[in-house]
Design goal:
Blueprint: H1 6-17, E1 23-27, H2 45-54, E2 57-61, H3 69-73, H4 75-84, E3 90-92, H5 96-104, E4 110-114, H6 117-120, H7 124-136, E5 139-142, H8 145-154, E6 160-162, E7 182-186, H9 197-203, E8 213-217, H10 224-234, H11 237-240, E9 243-245, H12 251-259, E10 263-266, H13 275-282, E11 286-290, H14 293-296, E12 307-309, H15 314-326, H16 328-345, H17 348-367
Parallel strand pairs: 1-2, 3-4, 4-5, 5-6, 7-8, 7-10, 8-9, 10-11, 11-12
Helix pairs in contact: 4-5, 5-7, 9-15
Length: about 375
């Protein structure tokens, strides 16, 4: 699993809480300045150090490649590590290259957690290899009902089990009091699939409300510089000065910024059940999100617990933000509804217990 991904780290540490001996395996990554992912000395250092202290060990795979070729050339290293660690089960925390490498390693049982783009946006030879590997895995856990449907079509022979990752609802909690102004947060990375530029384009349609709104982008990504340039070009000064690009925050920094906001924005073109959305809802935020099937599982007009926005329509984004700005009571009501939805359906105390139980059953069945 990639140790730089917060939800993957949380799954590993939650499994430790269930009493399992967890060994994490990741590639050794050369520093990538454009992504600001430098685990040894960057903003994630403390969070990754916590992972090291929690799990039984973290092993690194070395590869001469940074592209997808590495998954097809490093599976023997993965096999050796699993044998050295006497692994009972191999859990790949992504489909795509990770799932393919896990299956090629020959380690059994082999279980894959499918999260979204690894199925929904797979293409070319990678799609063929991934579909083959996923079809032969012992079990596929899938992050949401819609994604489960698409995964069954992608890998028809697979055993598919819908199971949410969920979020730590003891950690992600609402702020003590309502905010007097509109504070918008986007925690998605600056990659094409997350479409963060649509928020900037929507803000440009709100030329008269700059002093009433703050906007925070927390994450890094290769598209960050161009997004900053877009904001400088499109936004009026009054609003541009109230838009912050952090380029990456720690886990504690993410929580702090979520609890300082009241509107969460994500205009992803494709997703599984978004952990970022669930974290925001657990904190009582009002979602303004893309109108895609995965988000409709959580944001519904009947509940008035958020707003679904058509893709690539900046005016619709502006309209949704203006509605949030002018309806503080709506945000207050939605905070209660959204928190309860996560408690009922995506509390990681329960979801990871379910994952743990499934893994134990899989291991026992393989040993018979």
């Amino acid at each position: 699993m990639p140790v730089t991904v917060p939800w993957a780290r949380q799954v590993a540490m939650r499994l430790c809480e269930q009493g399992h001996e967890v060994h994490v395996i990741d590639f050794y990554e050369r520093p990538e300045p454009s992504l600001r992912i430098q685990p040894e000395n960057d903003y994630l250092a403390e969070d990754i150090a916590l992972l090291h202290r929690t799990v039984a060990g973290v092993d690194r795979i070395h590869s001469a490649f940074q592209s997808g070729i590495r998954y097809f050339t490093a599976f023997s290293q993965l096999r050796r590590i699993c044998r050295r660690r006497r692994a009972d089960v191999l859990l790949a925390m992504y489909g795509g290259g990770w799932g393919t490498m896990a299956y090629l390693s020959g380690v059994r049982p082999c279980v894959v957690y499918v999260v979204g783009s690894d199925v929904l946006r797979a293409a070319g030879l990678g799609r063929i290899a991934s579909a083959w590997a996923l079809s032969h895995a012992d079990t596929l856990f899938v992050n949401g009902e819609y994604l489960a449907e698409r995964t069954r079509a992608f890998a028809p022979r697979a055993r598919v089990v819908p199971l949410l990752i969920g979020v730590n609802t003891d950690r992600f909690t609402p702020r003590p009091a309502a905010l007097s102004s509109l504070k918008v947060i986007c925690t998605r990375g600056f990659q094409p699939v997350y479409n963060n530029e649509l928020l900037i384009q929507g803000l440009a349609e709100l030329k008269d409300v700059g002093e009433h709104m703050e906007v925070t982008f927390t994450s890094p990504g290769p598209g960050l510089p161009s997004a900053q340039a877009l904001a400088a070009r499109l936004l009026p000064t009054a609003l541009r000065d109230r838009v912050a690009f952090f380029g990456g925050v720690s886990d504690d920094g993410l929580l702090e910024n979520l609890r300082a906001a009241n509107v969460f924005v994500s205009f992803a073109r494709s997703d599984g059940t978004s952990t970022a959305l669930l974290e925001a809802m657990a904190c009582g935020l009002f979602p303004v999100v893309s109108d895609i099937p995965q988000n409709r599982e959580w944001v519904t007009p009947a509940l008035e617990n958020g707003i679904l926005v058509p893709l690539d329509q900046p005016k619709a984004v502006a309209e949704a933000l203006r509605k949030a700005l002018n309806n503080p009571d709506l945000l207050c009501r939605a905070a209660t509804v959204n928190r309860q939805l996560v408690l009922d359906r995506a509390d990681s105390r329960k979801t990871i217990r379910d994952l743990s139980s499934h893994l134990e059953t899989i291991v026992k069945a393989r040993r018979k």
